[in-house]
Structure formats: C-alpha cells, structure tokens
Amino acid sequence: MKKFFCLTLVCKLFALSEFELHHIDKVHKLGYSGDTIIIGVADDAFNQDHISLKDKILKSTYPTDTAGKQLIPDLKKSTHGSHVAGIAVGAKIGDSKPYGVAYGAKFYGAGVFPNGSYTQIPDIYNFFKDVSIINNSWGINFYPYFNLKASNSGLVDCTQTNQGTSYNICNTPLEYVMKADKVANDMMRLSKDKGVLNVFAAGNEGILSPALHAILPSYDESLRAWLAVGALDANEITLESDGTLIIKSQGLADFSNGFKGATNFSLVAAGVNINNVDSSTNDKFTKKSGTSMAAPMVSGTAALVKQNFPFLDGKQIADILLSTANKNYKAPKFTVKQVTDGTNQPKFLIVYISQDPPGIEDEIKRDLKQLYNGIQVQVNGQWIDYSDYIWDNRDSAQSQKLNTSTISSINGVVRVEKEELFGQGILDAQKALKGLSILDANRLSDQDVLKYEQEPNTAYYTINTAGYDAEFSNDISQRKWDESTHLSSAINKPTHLANLNIGLSKEGEGILIISGQNTYEGATLIKQGELKLKGKVKNNAYVEQKAILSGNGIVGQNLNNKGIVRPGNEDLNDLTVQGTYTQEGVDSKLQLDFGNYKNSKLIAKTYDIKSGNLEYIPLPKYYILNKPVKINLGDLEKSLSSFNHVLIQNTYALNFDFVLSDDLVSINKTLIKPNLKPNAYEIPNTSLGNALRQLRSRADLSQTYQEFFASLDNGIDVKTKLNRIEGSGYLSTFSNHNQSNLMQNNMLFTLHPLNINNFAQNNNILLASTYLPRIFSNEEYFWHLTPSYKYYKDKDFSGQKTGANISLGENFSSGFLAYALSLSSAKFNFNNGSDLKSYNMDLLLNYNHDLDFIKILSGLGIGVGFNTLNRFVVEQPIEGKYKTLQTSAQLGVTKDIILGQDFIFNPLMYFTHSFFYQEDFKENKSPFAKNYESLKHHSINANLGFNLAKNIEQDDYQASFSTFVIFEKRIYGRTLENKASFVDFPIAFIQKYKLKDNILSQGFNSEFLYKNNVFWQFMLMNRFSHNAYELHLMSSVGKRF
C-alpha cells in the first residue's frame, strides 16, 4: 500500500523559532556562548572539516576492528552526529547561517555504533571523563514502563529467547545495561562517579514513555545527572502578550515519545525541522527532525548554565534545567502520536491531555476532522481524509496497557496528564541562567535529610559555590515528595522524604546571591562562604561560625547568627528579620556599615543578644575629619550592653575613635569621630605623606579630591594611587638616562667610558684593537658614525633609547684628541601609569696621553635634554615639560700588558664627576598636579675593570675581538632630592630617589680595519644593578684619512 501525504504550508506569522521559543537568543545577547565548556557527543560520526565544526572537535574516537584499526566513517551516510553536534556547539559564522546553542563551547565526539567488522566499541568512560555534559541522541526500541518493544509484528512484550532461555529486558533494564550495553553502562558510571550530566533523546516512536536508556533513572534513583528530552515543533507554538505559550496539537511532535514513568527528569525542546550541519558537505546545512535534535538543544543550554555556574555538577545542572523549564503554557485539548512499532504500517494514538476523552467515537472523530481540516492522504490510489486514515489505523497496544476504564471500549484513544507529555516543562535558557527555581524533594536523597538545631526534619538542597560568586535570581519554591511519580521497584529509592519541607544549605567559599521572593518552606543554612540576601526567604535562617549573611533582603522568621551578619550590600541598606534575631558565640559579629549621615541596620521584631561583637564599618566614602557621625541602631540599642564588644573596623588611613555618651543605650548619642592616623598616606623616601595629610584635612576640597580620598581612605588600590601621586619616575631614570647618557657617549665603542675613539693611531686607552690603525698607514685624522640602541628594565619602569653620534679625531705623537656630537631620544613607561619622553643633545671631548709606563685617560662632556612627563592620577592626564643640563668630567689610567703574540690585557681605573641640573617647571592644572623647584645634583663614581683582546692579522684586514668587565661604585651623591608642591594648594614636600650604588658592566666588542682605511665595529654590553638591567647595542662605520 502506497501512501502520499498532501499538506498545505501556511505562513505562521506569530510562530516562534527554536531559539525564540527557548529564549536562547536573549541569552546570547547577554554574552553567554558556552565559552571554555567542553561537552561530549556520543553518536555515529562527525565532520570536523565542516565550517560549523572546524576547530570545535577537540578529539574523536570510533569503533575498531579486532586488529585495532579504527573506523573511518562515511560522512555522506553517517550524517546524524554532525547535525546533532552542530545544534549543540556549532560555530557562529554569521547570523545568516545556523549555529549552536553553545556556539563558544567545544566537544569530544565518540562514534558508538558498530559498523561491519568494526565491532570494538571505544572506552567511553575514560574518553568522556573530563567533560561536563554528554549528549546522547540514540537509543533502542525497548520501552520498560509498558513492557513493550518494537518488532516485525508490532509492539509486543519485551520477552526474548537466547539459546533456549527466555528473559525480559524491560523487567531488568539496569541488569541489561550493566551486562550487555557497555556504552550505556559507561554513561551511568560517568554520571554516578564524576557527576557528568547525560542528556538522552526520549525516542521517536510515538510511545508515551521514553526508550530504555532515557528512562533508566526511574529504575535507579541515584542516577540524578540524567535527563530525558522530548520534541516540540516551534512552528506550531505562539506566544501570547501575557507570556503564555499556546501549544497547538501539532506543537507536540507526533513522533516524540512521552514521559510516562519519567516525569521527574524530563523536559521538552524544539526538534522539528531543525536546520544545521550537513556532514555530506563541508559548508552546507540541512533540516532534520527528531528528539535527536531536541536533546542537543538541552545539552547546549546545559553548557551555558555550566559557563554561568561553573561550580555546579551534572545533577545540579539538570535540577536547574528542570526547575526553570517553562510551565506557563497552554496545552492543546489533544494530540496525535504516530506510532512506529516495527512494521511498515503507520499506527496512531489519539491522546487527550489532562482530560478524559469523549466516550462517543463520533465526538473523537469530530475533533480529528477539526484538527486536520480537510487534509487528505492517498491510499491505494484513492484520496481519503487524513482524520479517517488515523482512525482506521489506531494503535491498540498502548491503550490496552494504560488504565483508561472510562474509554476501555475505544482502542487507540487515551488520557495522559500534561506532565507525561511535557515533563517538567519547556526548556527556558534565559530562566536557567538565573539559577534554581524549585527545590524538588523528588530529586533529593535520604542523605539530604537533616535535623538541624530546633528545626524539624527537613530535606536540604546543598549549593557549594567552591570559591565562585554567583546569583540565583529566580523565585525559588519547593516541591514535596510525590510517591506517584516513582516506581516502587526502583533501587536507591529514598524512604525518608515523604511530607518533608525543603531547605537550602550554602556551603563552600564564594558568594551566593539570592534575590528572588523565595517560598520554600525549609530553613536556610549558611555554613560556609557568604550568602547575600537581596530577596526574601520564607522561614528561619542560620549562620554558622565563619560564614556570612549579608544583603538588604528579608528573613521571614528568625535569624540565628553564630558567624557574621552584615546588613546591606555595602550600600547602607537594611536587613529585615520578621522574627527574632539571635546572636551567640564569642566570635559572632553583627557588622553595620556607615557613612557620614547614615548607617545600615538590622531590623528585627525582637533581639536576643547572648554574646559576640557589634562592629561598625566605614564604607568607601569621604569623611569630614573631626565631624561626629551618628549611628542609628533602632530597637537594637536596647540590647547594646549585651554585646561583648562594640568595635570600629579601621580603614587604611582613618582611625575612628568610638565615643559613647554617658547613656550607653541612647542611640542618638552613639558617636564615631574620624581622626587621621599620624602615618596616613606615608610614602618611603618622601615627605609627600605629610603633605597629603595636610591636604586631606582641608575643608575646601573639591568633589574630585573628596572622591579620591574616599577610595584611598578605604584601602582601594592604595599603593597604586600613592605611587601615581608621587610620580617620581623622572627621578628614577636619572642614573639610567640623563647621567649615563654622557658617560655612554664618552665610552662609545670602547671598553673604557672616557674614550670615544677606538681608532686613534697611537695608544688607545683601553682596547687592544686600537693599535690596528698603525698597521696599514699613519693617517692623522679619522671620523666615524655610530647608531645605538638601549633597552632598560627596572622594577619600576621599562624603556628604550635610540640615537646616533658623529665623531672626529686627531692623532698626536703621544696621544689623541677626539670630538663627538650625539643626538638621542628615549621613552620610559612606569608601573604607576606615567611615562617620560626625552630628547638629548651632547657634545663630547676626549684626550688620552701616553707616558710610556702608563696612559692617562681624560674626557669632558656637556649636554641638554628636552623632557615631557605625563602622569595620570584622576580624571585627566597631567603633563609637565622641562629642560635639563648635564656635564661630566673623567680622569683615569690604564696600561697595555702584552700576553703572548696576539693578546693584550688592559687593567682600568678611572673616576667620573657628573653634574645634573633640572629647571623648575609646572604641570598643567589638574588634581594633584605639581610645581617642581629646580634641581642641582653632583655625583662622583669610581670605576675599576679590565679588557682582554685578541688580534688577528690577514693580508687585507686586521681584526680584534675583545671582552670586558667594569665595576662602577657611586661614592658621592647617592640620593636625589627635588622640592615640589601641589598646584591647587600651597603645600610643599620633598621627593627623594636613591640612585644605584653598584653597577656591573660586561660586554663584547669586534672591529675590523681594512687597507683602504675603512673600519667598522659592533659592541654588545650588559649592565646589571639592583633590580635593574640594561642592554646596549652599538655599531659604527668610519674612515681614517
């Protein structure tokens, strides 16, 4: 019999896309993409070259043959897995192409189906052990709840015969999985051992209960990290203005299995005509339908939940998805399931939802005709109404299994409750990203039951934030144990949850914010970390030792504090307790924040203070010095004397003296008077701290200064802020830039700082190579051009300098005289956010004299610098421009010691006197801008070292290679001092900087001199000092004439 369906496509103007249905589009706009999350996908195959999956699949595995060779899948045939993976994590290439729910996530892909000789299934347990979520869009056609399986004869019971022995898989599904289904058994182990969430497609056979793998948690109630997913057709769902989803009869996919026996761990998602990866190509997409497509919608959303709440395990991710599933929908009167029973003959099941079917067949037929509205199907060449075709091909197997006494005479027509089709509801990604919505006893265990303090036995839902901060902003209600949703034969079934209320227990470090209007009936326990209450909890709350309760919410009954309670959100708001506030324990604290004119309060109906402390905490505000701050305790003032101590928590700079009036219970006379610490804002090597204290004490500070001191007083980035105010970068670069600029130019291309001419014809003061010019000629003059580069790295800054100099020299019978002009630019970037740019010009003179038994070294230099200092403290950059002058004089001795035929050793000793002058200058007007007085500084350094050179002589050139070490000791002028004052206020201070005392230079030099009197050199030098390093690179080319 041939069948052809003739359907008319109608544009549904108000229908939803799958992302709209589940609010996935809204979650993406909030920036959630599943980034950093890795999921697993167990399926047939994955095209890692497809544009949507490229770089998405981190690793893959497939079945192997007996020789260990791995299957290479045929991606033109095995297209299912790539489509599924694309729905979950496909890359976002552009808005015009389909992409995944968690398009920022990646995945591990496992092919789990034997193929031909490839019968050895991969080790799924170890392959997936590092993932958080596994998508399973696969299953077998066994339905344990109904004891049915699909066969050539239709739906029959699950009894099978193997080697003469009959057994029933549906009666013992767990035993079957553990003995005969390694993949599913590994999935169970991963969920139990490692808390991995397994998401299973419910199946596509139109059965009112999930297939065997999807329903396993009904038979083992310790299997909580497990979800069953059914399919919807988003194109058949509309959204009302009040937010209600209207589900048409076809909105429930006719192929999708239901959730009889599995409602506690099931939900539905879009799974019809889902457009995604076509693995037969590398860049095309195709539409597929099935619960296989709905499952990755859930898996992708689970990845988004894991991204937002990284501390959750698989069971808790499932709890969030189930508790936040959208229940604001209107189910249709009935729907029709197309049953695939293993035969080639379609069967249909007419399902009335949460209402009894009509008892008269004609009324049911009338409902069918209204639903399909004249759609016809061709059967054996004859067109008939589709509704009649459905009626004539009803499935009786399921209706006979169900207890439908009111319609027992009508085959293929049943009643189910809407939860048995929708589970806990419709996937809602936006609500899921807001955390738990229901504390469900049906997903807890006996181990969660606790008799706490005076509370009755309660089942507590535990959240361990594990050091993370998170917010649950949904209203959290509770759902009590419902025995009718559990199988009496299930293993690990709780036996102590009946009639118990559900509470919430916060464990682990980190902050959990609860901001909804919560109605769960159990107590709230804060055992570790902090719970910040911005909403309301209905019943009692308990704070254990070292735990913290804060916020401006409401505790509906009593609050017992053995730890810390801090009302408000550091914003002077109040925490309300509608019963009694009890504080006990010597380490317990009630902390109240305050500002200049207001404080946070704990407002309770009654107070029972047994022990502990009351602490006042100043918030990061600007406090007027010596002005009393009044603390308003409300009715708590009557219990003030019951605290062990009343304390002030000091800030970084302010020390608050707590002053009580003679009447300790008169709250309006409880005063806090801020007084400045004598060492507030202290900075080493400067009197700036005293200046800041004077500035802080002024009554005429602008709002900008007040806000800055407010953050400073309360310890917010104190060191950084003080360093930025100090801004001593221009001083810290003195020895590395201004002073050494002269010295470096004077020693350019020599290993002695005072000799800029390595090519004097007679008696170079340091380098063995300086005798090379004598070999070829007796030219009297020379010149050379030298570009250079320097890199600076200090604990407070980094920088670089580039430059060049031109040198001229003249030889005498007993020495030589050389002149140089040097131009350079430098930039330094400081850790405190400032920078210094400098341009320098130097004139240098060097004269060396040979006394035969010893060589005299001498040099003079003078230079000017043009500098721009940029700082940032608050609001806008601060800039100052100034000029500098530097001079230097050097005097020393050396001697040539010949070692064999080719080596020359030169011991060195010399002294350097430097003078540095910085003009006075003023920074542009901005908060904390400064006036700088002029600076004059003298410094004397002693230098001791040696150079060792090897000379090589060839027919056309002479070469020299040398190494040197020089130790420099500052013997006078170790500290720079500069007087300054603030531009806005006439408060003067002195800034000091300690210069480097000891510097070690080490380097290498090479030079070549040719017969045409052209020469070139290259030198590398390293300079080391305390917490500082410099690298110098220089090259030179010149000619003798």
Automatic annotation (TrEMBL):
Ranges where the Autotransporter domain occurs: 775-1041
Any one Gene Ontology molecular-function term assigned to this protein's record: serine-type endopeptidase activity
TM annotation in the entry: none
Pfam family membership, one: Autotransporter
Active-site residue numbers: D43, H80, S292
Keyword flag Ribonucleoprotein: no
InterPro entries hit by this protein: Autotransporte_beta (IPR005546), Autotransporte_beta_dom_sf (IPR036709), Autotrns_rpt (IPR013425), Pectin_lyase_fold/virulence (IPR011050), Pept_S8A_subtilisin_campylobac (IPR017318), Peptidase_S8/S53_dom (IPR000209), Peptidase_S8/S53_dom_sf (IPR036852), Peptidase_S8/S53_subtilisin (IPR051048)
Keywords: Hydrolase, Protease, Serine protease, Signal
CDD domains: Peptidases_S8_Autotransporter_serine_protease_like
Gene Ontology annotations of biological process type: proteolysis
Uppermost EC category: hydrolase
PROSITE patterns: AUTOTRANSPORTER, SUBTILASE, SUBTILASE_HIS, SUBTILASE_SER
Record-listed E.C. numbers: 3.4.21.-
Family statement drawn from the similarity comment of this UniProt entry: Belongs to the peptidase S8 family.
Official protein name in the record: Secreted serine protease
Organism, as annotated: Campylobacter jejuni subsp. jejuni serotype O:2 (strain ATCC 700819 / NCTC 11168)
